Every structure is written in C-alpha cells, then in structure tokens.
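Hey team,

Sharing the ABC transporter ATP-binding protein run so nobody has to redo it. Sequence (365 residues) first:
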Amino acid sequence: MAEVVLNQVVKTYGNVYAVNHVSLTVADGEFVALVGPSGCGKTTTLNLIAGLIEMSGGDIHIGDRLVNDLDPKDRDIAMVFQNYALYPNKTVFKNLAFPLQMRKLSKSDIEAKVLSAAKVLDITHLLERKPRELSGGQQQRVALGRALVRDPRVFLMDEPLSNLDAKLRVQMRTELKRFHQDLQATVVYVTHDQLEAVTMADKMAVMNGGFLQQYDSPKNVFDNPVNMFVASFVGSPAMSLVPLEVVTHGTDVALRSPEGWQLPLSAANARKALTSTTAKVVLGARHSTVKLHTTQTPGTVPGVIYTVEPTGDITFVQVFLGASVVIVSLDPSVIVEPDQKVWIEFDQDKIHLFDGATEMALAAA
Ligand SMILES: Nc1ncnc2c1ncn2[C@@H]1O[C@H](COP(=O)(O)OP(=O)(O)O)[C@@H](O)[C@H]1O
Ligand SMILES: [Mg+2]
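Structure output:
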C-alpha cells in the first residue's frame, strides 16, 4: 500500500473550478472519505487521483512516484464505482479472474488470488454464480473483490454503496470498515453521506464548491468545525445556527437576538465573540447539548415549539427562537406540544461561535 499526496490540485472546466487548489495527504493504510454535497468536486478529485481526467494544475504523488503524467493503468490503483458493472455472462470467479488474465498471470496464480479475495469478502460459495443470481450486496462485494485481486497500492471508491437499499448500505458500511481494518489498505472513498464518512473513515476531507474546507478525524471535525458550512454539514440532525449580535455591558459580553433577549456569555465565549470582525456572530449548538425547559429559568432564552418528531429512542423537537430554529433532543417520555412556549438553555462549554460575516469559527484571542 502507499500514501497519496495531493499538492495544490486544480481542475477547471472553462471558468468553473471543479477542484480548487486542494492539498491533502492520505497516509499509507488510511481510510479517507471525501465528503460534501453534490457537485462539490469529490468525483473529480477521485478521477484526478485515478488519472481518468487531466489536471489543470498541481501535483499528485502515489507512494514515492509523481503520477501527473502516468496513465491510469500505470498508477497501481483499483476503482470501485456506484455501478459495479460486472460482466453479466461471466461467473463470479471469471469476473474476478478477468483483470488478472488481462495481466497475463498464470492460471494457478489467478486461482490463488481469486480464492484469497473471495475468502476475505466471504463470497467463496458464490463463485460459480452469475451476477444476476446475486443480491445487490453480494454484487457489490464481487465488485470489491475485483478491485482486491489486483493488489493495488490504493483503492479508490466513488459512492460504492449508493445503489443499495438503506439496510444493506448500513451492513456494507460495517463490512467495508472491516475490509479496511483487515487489509490495512489505503482507501480514498467518495460519499455525499456524512454519516458514511463519520462512521468509516480515519479522516474526512469535507469539500464545498471545489474547496477543501476541513481535513481531520471525524471526531475533530464534529467537535471543532472550522466554519458554518462544515458545522451544518456534519452531524444529523444538523447543528442549529442562530444569528445574534454581540453587545457589551462594561466588561460583560452578551449575545442579543432581534427579538431583544440577551444571552450572557461565559468569559471564554466572550473572548471568542469579541474577535468577530463585525458585531454579527452566529451561535451554533448541537441538539444533544441543548436543554428544554417548560418554565422560565435563569440563563434561558424564550422560544416556541414548531414540531415534535418522535423517532423511537429520541424525540427531536424543533423550537423557533425568533426566526431561527433550534433542534433539541428529548427522552420520549417527555411530553411537549407544538406551539407550546418553552425556554432553551445552551451549554456554554459546548456552544460554537462563528463570525457572522466570514462564517469562520471564532477562537479565543
Ligand atoms: N466533464 C465536465 N464538464 C464540465 N463540468 C464538469 C465536468 N465534470 C464535472 N463538472 C463540474 O465540476 C463540479 C464538480 O463535479 P463532481 O466532481 O462530479 O462533483 P461531486 O462528485 O462532488 O458531486 C460540478 O460543478 C460539475 O458540474
Ligand atoms: Mg460524484
């Protein structure tokens, strides 16, 4: 296996930057998810690593080789796509063997590699079947097997689970994670599904509009999103974002809503808020860190319940604070109703503050 290094990689189509000066290092054996909304440049980035499209600028290294000018077949990579495109008239064994026959391996080598890949993916009992005799999940495993037999330096996967139904997707997620753990393979995995990225990847590269927004472990991205885009993209339900204004009273600092309520800030949050480029800041809070009170309590701010969404284990409640919606999670035993007046308590140690103008996370000066 090998590391993959992108240095200031650019891909333009006309005057559109599909990929805009992206730099990142995927360490040897690491599982990295490229994640972001549709059109943000994930597939283009993956195809640049694969060599399927030509770069407009920058460098890509795989292992110690600069691959900018190498054909895909010389890059020692294997791709797995959303459409697994198995050969319908070949058995699973022959589907797996085919890429090796193309490389003119001996019959016994081919058989050994196919059997070993089949064992890893638990498809040995399917080797004599045709693709149409397999379930979606089994077909996806065969597609993975076809990549695996090639013994590549890097696996590149583009939304490989998107065609599967929800339950199978969750199951394959577990299997892919196990596949990575067992093989210690270098994997670059594209998905628009932040949950897939968070659950499987060692690191996630969050992209938006061709730019790399943040590249870190899922935990660090979740705990310390660098900007409002990342904050609202990662985590479900999304982080609530409430635009407010910084006001000072002597040495005390508070956030004031358009409705007129004020939230006094802790010393640490006050220092952050004062670094804002303008008086506008956005308070961010994840549902699990917000408390809901049904009576007025010191340190809370007033709101009105919009919807109550039971999910079984947790009930999500959407509360309007003026024009902003804050999502709170409750134990299902707590009974609240739409249009009920409530009070929201933010945990000062858990809130995020963003610059209202630049949308970047504010750090204490
Ligand atoms: N062959 C192409 N010609 C023109 N524009 C393209 C082409 N391929 C991708 N793009 C544009 O580049 C951007 C990124 O696309 P893509 O990498 O496919 O996004 P993602 O995989 O994140 O959904 C989009 O704006 C898309 O329209
Ligand atoms: Mg794509």
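The domain at 4-233 is CATH 3.40.50.300 (Rossmann fold).

Ping me if you want the raw files.
A.
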